[in-house]
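ASSEMBLY PREDICTION REQUEST
Request ID: AP-0331
Submitted by: J.K., bench scientist
Number of chains: two
Total residues: 684
Priority: normal
Notes: Please return the full assembly, not individual chains.
Input sequences:
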Amino acid sequence: MSPVLSIPPTADRTSEGSSAITDSTPRTVRELGEFALIARMNGGRSQSTGVLLGPGDDAAIVAAPAGRYVVSTDMLVQDRHFRLDWSAPGDIGRKAIAQNAADVVAMGAAPSAFVVSLGCPADTPVAFIDDFVDGMWIEAHRAGASVAGGDVVRSPLLVISVTAFGDPPDRPVLRSGARPGDTVAVAGRLGWSAAGLALLAAGADLGKFPEVVAAHRVPQPPYDTVLGMPADAAITAMADVSDGLLADLGHIARSSGIAVDVDPALLGDPALEPVAELLGADSLGWILTGGEDHAFVATFGAGQPLPDGWTPVGRVEAGSGVTVGGEPWTGPVGWESFAEGG
Amino acid sequence: MSPVLSIPPTADRTSEGSSAITDSTPRTVRELGEFALIARMNGGRSQSTGVLLGPGDDAAIVAAPAGRYVVSTDMLVQDRHFRLDWSAPGDIGRKAIAQNAADVVAMGAAPSAFVVSLGCPADTPVAFIDDFVDGMWIEAHRAGASVAGGDVVRSPLLVISVTAFGDPPDRPVLRSGARPGDTVAVAGRLGWSAAGLALLAAGADLGKFPEVVAAHRVPQPPYDTVLGMPADAAITAMADVSDGLLADLGHIARSSGIAVDVDPALLGDPALEPVAELLGADSLGWILTGGEDHAFVATFGAGQPLPDGWTPVGRVEAGSGVTVGGEPWTGPVGWESFAEGG
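STATUS: Completed
Returned structure:
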């Protein structure tokens, strides 16, 4: 897999027992050097059972017991997707894994492995890398998988690219299966990440809302709520909420050839009200258009019971587009990667 | 898979028939916008048979008929792994795919799919993206696969992360199988990319050595030489030459617990002599330590015939380390991602 994975775990002697930072420990990745850095990143980790061959060769080998696998990839760029003054290195590692795991789970697939490419400046502290890698592994384990390999290169700013893999069920849940009459439901929090970002951007007293700020730093996709659904759940379509509820429902609406109406009365969140009051903001805007919480939105067959952990928020109708209480939403609609302010 | 793949092919109307750049075509990715950019990147492409679900949902689905798959990932950063004044966009796309395909093939696996994350400035010309994507597809087809999905984000400089997948044979070829007495052999060119880079760096008259410069811009890993080997070939270990022959043989030596001696008399390349003469350089240095050609180096059982396309370059011995004509190599030894000059 590139220069960086060319040291097999059996040759990983320099990193063993060196996890504590001491005065003699190299302080930057330049001092440590590429191969020692990789050995350190891979040292002492236990791969999940699906990873048949981990770091140390040209490529990893991952099991695909279903004869096929789900794959998704995302890139995070410093100062665009995270800020070093707002997030700790471990938070960034967790977020990078979580947002990719959510894409895999949004297909109904159980995460099996991740590979990660990291670009970083040569003067990046080794302690930063340690914490970042720890964060990745914490979230990978939370998602039931491990980090099977990757690449490290020099870059003027931090860039993280994660590719996530998963084992799909017999019938993966696509965006294209929603039908008129279906119930629209959400698993997980909406608007918390956007509210946390607003608190950080406003320089607000963060101590008042630690959970909201933490939700921005580390999304917590409810993997188990999706993967624990009974096999006979009447789910017809699903997506993870990365662009914002309205934007991601828009993707389902287009893919399925249907319309969605969201009921605002079902969407309020008392926990966000004091934040909105403090900042003079509208919490419904965060809930409808804030991305990055990596909640899941799905549609379920008309009249069928919702599985545990799912909350109804609207209904599928004939037509096209997404409305809120029967009206077009006139506020901001999601997040465009190349928009001026985005 | 992230915002960028949320438009299914069936919704890809804006990009149909719009591949020609006209006066009314948006000239930058900011003008085009993220979703239209993705539609344009995916429009009119035919997925290979192994890609069961391509762009348009949270994740792609790829076939793994062997019940397992090979995966490798690499990141390329502008001005570090390519320069915009030295390589055309199509060259960069081809190189990004080729270096990842080579990692997959170095396991003895046939490439099945790629996913790509691209970070680029908002003022990147759409024409640049068109040519870059065309280059990726050309090389993906050359490797027998297709681009199954990806991500596009804004970044202050170009960053490309490719993850490559492949179908492994019953016995993947690892780095750890070399045994004393084995023959060391190479398939593909060595030193050409380094020589081409030296010509570019020296501002030499490139017209004199077009093939050498082209070899730097677009590596041409001999996929077919590896994948076309008879099933009973006596191959015991393999790696792709990305760091340089000595460095990559060093990985095989460490993984296998053996030593390698390279015979310099077997390594000269007449095509590189006039380049070395022009630049006052040593062509053997390029051949032994220049990476990026993505040739393949492998070991074959003692006394066994080499398959077509493989040239002997040395021998496996008991011990450790890599020597050249029985002596340690005292020139530069490969490419360190975080070295000062690297």
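REVIEWER COMMENTS: DSSP finds ten helices and twelve strands in chain A.
SIGN-OFF: pending second reviewer
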